[in-house]
Amino acid sequence: MTKTVDFAKMNGLGNMILVVDMRGRSDVVTPEAAIALNADPATRFDQIMAIHDPRVDGTDAFIDILNCDGSKAQACGNGTRCVVQALAAETGKKVFTFQTVAGILNAVEHEDGTISVDMGRPVFDWNRIPLAEEFFDTSRIELQIGPIDAPVLHSPAAMSMGNPHAVFWVDRDPMSFDLERFGPLLENHPMFPEKANITLAQVTSNASMTTRTWERGAGLTLACGSAACAAGVSGARTGRTGRKVAITVASSPNRGVLTIEWRGDDHVVMTGPAEWEWSGMLDPSTGAFRRDDAEAAAL
Ligand SMILES: N[C@@H](CCC[C@H](N)C(=O)O)C(=O)O
Predict the structure, then answer these.
(1) Residue 54: domain span
(2) CATH number, position 58
(3) Cα-to-chain-centroid distance, residue 85
(4) Any idea which residues are catalytic in this one (predicted)?
C-alpha cells in the first residue's frame, strides 16, 4: 500500500472540505491526521470526506466523514456536493449513490454545475435525535440561553438529518448574534447527549430564510448543508414556510443560497454549488501533505 493518496481542497458555499480518495485501501484517515491538517492554515477545513470502496451493491462509494476536531459526523451536505463534483470530473458520470453511516444518499450533478443531494428523511423522535429529555413535540423544545426572563435564544426546533440539529428562530439578521459565544454552550448543552449543530434562522418569506450555523465538532463555519436542510424542514414543520425554501447562508461568501425541498415522499433534497480549489497528495495516517502546485508543503 502506498503511503500517500490523492486529495482535493474544495468548498461548498465556503464550508471548507477536504475530499480524500481512499479507494483501493483498507486504512482510514485518522483523527490524528485530521487534527494535523486542520492546524495547518493551508489545509484548514471543516470536514474531511473520505471516499472508500463501496460496501453494498448499487452504491458508488462509502463516505466516511470527519470533523476538524477528529470526531466523526454522520452527514455533511456541502461535503457530499464536493464529492459529487470530484467524482463527476473524474468519471464523467452525473448520477451517484453513496453509503454513509446514516444511510444511502442519491445525488446528481445538473447541466449548470449545481448539485442536488437527496439527504434522506428527517428524524423527529426525541430519542433518535437524540435529546436527553422526552419531548412529544420536538418542533419546539424547552431550551433557552440568556437571562431567564429575557432569553437571547429560546425554544428551538430539534431534529436529525442523520446528525443532530437545533434551529433557533430569530427576528433579525443571524450575523448580528454572538454565535461564537452561544454556539459552544448550546453545542455542548446537556440536552444534546451527542452534542448538536446549532443554527440561527430568520424567516424572510414563505419561501425563503437566512441562516448561520455553529457546527458540532467544527465551530463557526461559513456554511452547513445539513443545517440548511434542518432549517428548511423545521420552517415547514412549524408552519413558518412552505416545503421548498431558498436558504441564504448569511456567513458564506456573497451570502450564497441553497435550495431545500422537503418532498412529498418525506425526503429532503438540497441543491447548491461546489468549488474545487487545489489538489495534492496526502498521508492519511499523519496528515502530511504535498500540493500539486508550486506552493507545495514537503511530505
Ligand atoms: N458541514 C456539514 C455538516 C458537518 C457535520 C457536523 N459538524 C456534525 O458533526 O454533525 C454540512 O454541510 O452538512
Answers:
(1) 5-120+275-291
(2) 3.10.310.10
(3) 16
(4) 76, 224
pLDDT in tens, 72-110: 999 999 999 999 999 999 999 999 999 999 999 999 999
Nearest CA to ligand 1 atom 11: 76
Q: Give the Å distance between the CA of 163 and the centre of ligand 1.
A: 7
Annotated binding site for substrate: 15, 47, 67, 77-78, 163, 197, 215-216, 225-226
- DSSP, res 8: E
Q: To 5 degrees, how large is the angle CA 264–CA 94–CA 280?
A: 120
Does one domain contain both 259 and 279?
Answer: no
Residue 176 domain-assigned (yes or no): yes
How far, in Å, is the centroid of ligand 1 from the Cα of 226?
6
Confidence of residue 299 (pLDDT cuts 50, 70, 90): very low
204 and 241 part of one domain: yes
Counted domains in the chain = 2
Distance, CA of 39 to CA of 278 (rounded, Å): 18
218 lines ligand 1 (CB under 6 A): yes
Helix (H, G, I), strand (E, B) or coil at 67: strand
Q: Which atom of ligand 1 is nearest to the CA of 213?
A: 1
Its pTM surpasses 0.90:
yes
Whether residues 34 and 82 share a domain: the answer is yes
Q: Let me know if 224 is a catalytic residue.
A: yes
ipTM tops 0.90? yes
Ligand 1 nearest-atom number relative to CA 224 = 12
Catalytic residue among 68, 76, 82, 229: 76
Residue with cell 444511502: 104
Look at residue 251 and tell me if it is in a domain.
Answer: yes
Query: Is residue 128 one of the residues assigned to a domain?
Result: no
Q: How far is the CA of 150 from the centre of ligand 1 (A)?
A: 30
295: pLDDT confidence band, cut at 50, 70 and 90?
low
**Using one digit for the tens of pLDDT, what is the confidence trace for 187-242?**
999 999 999 999 999 999 999 999 999 999 999 999 999 999 999 999 999 999 99
Ordered DSSP codes for 247-280 = EEETTSGGG-EEEEEE-TTS-EEEEE--EEEEEE
- Same domain as 107, residue 9: yes
Please tell me whether residues 96 and 160 are part of one structural domain. Answer: no
175 and 91 in a common domain: no
